[in-house]
């Protein structure tokens, strides 16, 4: 859990965080009971700015809840206060009931405004962590909780540096066998047999985090399957392992039936969850690529597949640079502007050096990066290849 920070002793001497930092008379529990500010004295406080209507808040709240319960179980001096950004009381109450910590009363608009202004809250979710004396330990600990969970406590800079150093050592010594040692098995499931992890050493391996009841996963699985078939047909040393994020075994089995590659054995999500935390997987589908040496090549395999298809293999920085250079050369053969059937305005060619960047193609709904045809007025962007379907070309 980490040692108690020196701010704890200072807080006891100076009167604590309550009266000096938190501008409210009392809090409210998820069940509607009053919580006195005095109950927070001597504790590290996380001010959780969030809203029921925002998907990223809904996704982060369970992670924070897990860390919160673990810290409580270990007797750590930690408390969270929900500062609602919800638009109405029913939304606030519905969201708060799913949390184990107190909140600023919904009607205390002045308090919520002062807290937002004091800590310059411009986006959510936001977790401002305060020492017992009111000092800001972390202006936003959302990323730390995602990466380290309860191990981030007490959120001091020294603790964060320690965790980052441990993480660097962990990835430096990573091997394929170590990655899968988390589930206590030395094999994965093939279509008809168990495949030893040792037989995959020396190959480029994609770890595919996905689930059956996930529309983006269904779409990407079909594309990945075609690329997998192409690469296997070329005798490339490439394999994919399905890391199930399904909540039920039936979904896992259905997913496996749609996939031509290997799969991690189902165990109610224990192994999959551990791997998702290890690789900091926030959303699905995610494709993490591990190289022949067992080290992580990229966690952005999904985007690279969407951008470059099977040409992305083996997903290394060198290969991606080569593909980007090829794109730069190919772009010279495209017209500087055109009119596309999907948009009423003229589109101009742009690159990452002239206004381009990561985008979702408005024609094929796939990832784009750098080169694009873009409408400056509307933000409409399409791949160069999607621009070939056009009504007329501007001179």
Automatic annotation (TrEMBL):
<dbReference type="InterPro" id="IPR046349">
    <property type="entry name" value="C1-like_sf"/>
</dbReference>
<keyword id="KW-0520">NAD</keyword>
<comment type="similarity">
    <text>Belongs to the nucleoredoxin family.</text>
</comment>
<protein>
    <recommendedName>
        <fullName>protein-disulfide reductase</fullName>
        <ecNumber>1.8.1.8</ecNumber>
    </recommendedName>
</protein>
<dbReference type="InterPro" id="IPR012336">
    <property type="entry name" value="Thioredoxin-like_fold"/>
</dbReference>
<dbReference type="InterPro" id="IPR052259">
    <property type="entry name" value="Nucleoredoxin-like"/>
</dbReference>
<dbReference type="GO" id="GO:0047134">
    <property type="term" value="F:protein-disulfide reductase [NAD(P)H] activity"/>
</dbReference>
<dbReference type="InterPro" id="IPR013766">
    <property type="entry name" value="Thioredoxin_domain"/>
</dbReference>
<keyword id="KW-0560">Oxidoreductase</keyword>
<feature type="domain" description="Thioredoxin">
    <location>
        <begin position="16"/>
        <end position="177"/>
    </location>
</feature>
<dbReference type="Pfam" id="PF13905">
    <property type="entry name" value="Thioredoxin_8"/>
</dbReference>
<dbReference type="InterPro" id="IPR036249">
    <property type="entry name" value="Thioredoxin-like_sf"/>
</dbReference>
<keyword id="KW-0677">Repeat</keyword>
């Amino acid at each position: 859990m980490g040692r108690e920070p020196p701010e704890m002793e200072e807080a006891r001497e100076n009167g604590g965080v309550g009266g000096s930092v938190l501008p409210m008379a009392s809090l409210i529990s998820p069940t509607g009971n009053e919580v006195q500010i005095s109950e927070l004295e001597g504790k590290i406080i996380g001010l959780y700015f969030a809203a029921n209507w925002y998907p990223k808040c809904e996704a982060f709240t369970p992670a924070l809840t897990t860390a919160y319960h673990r810290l409580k179980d270990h007797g750590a001096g930690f408390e969270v206060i929900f500062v609602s950004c919800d638009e109405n009381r029913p939304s606030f109450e519905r969201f708060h009931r799913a949390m184990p910590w107190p909140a600023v009363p919904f009607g205390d608009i002045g308090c919520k405004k002062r807290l937002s202004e004091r800590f310059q809250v411009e986006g959510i979710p936001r977790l401002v962590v305060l020492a017992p004396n009111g000092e800001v330990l972390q202006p936003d600990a959302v990323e730390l909780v995602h990466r380290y969970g309860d191990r981030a406590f007490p959120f001091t800079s020294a603790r964060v540096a320690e965790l980052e150093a441990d993480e660097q050592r962990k990835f430096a010594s990573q091997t394929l066998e170590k990655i899968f040692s988390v589930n206590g098995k030395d094999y994965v499931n093939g279509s008809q047999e168990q495949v030893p992890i040792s037989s995959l050493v020396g190959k480029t391996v994609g770890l595919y985090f996905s689930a059956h009841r996930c529309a983006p996963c269904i779409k990407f699985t079909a594309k990945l399957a075609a690329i997998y078939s192409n690469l296997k047909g070329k005798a490339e040393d490439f394999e994919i392992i399905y890391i199930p994020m399904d909540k039920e075994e039936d979904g896992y089995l259905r997913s496996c039936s749609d996939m031509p590659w290997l799969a991690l054995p189902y165990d109610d999500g224990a192994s999959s969850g551990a791997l998702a935390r290890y690789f900091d997987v926030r959303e699905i589908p995610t494709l993490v690529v591990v190289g022949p040496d067992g080290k992580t090549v990229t966690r952005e395999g999904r985007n690279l597949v969407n951008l470059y298809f099977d040409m992305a293999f083996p997903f290394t920085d060198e290969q991606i640079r080569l593909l980007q250079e090829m794109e730069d050369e190919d772009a010279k053969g495209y017209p500087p502007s055109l009119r596309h059937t999907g948009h009423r305005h003229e589109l101009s060619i742009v690159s990452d050096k002239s206004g381009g960047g990561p985008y979702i193609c408005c024609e094929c709904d796939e990832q784009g990066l750098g080169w694009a045809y873009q409408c400056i007025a509307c933000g409409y962007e399409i791949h160069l290849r999607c621009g070939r379907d056009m009504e007329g070309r501007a001179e």
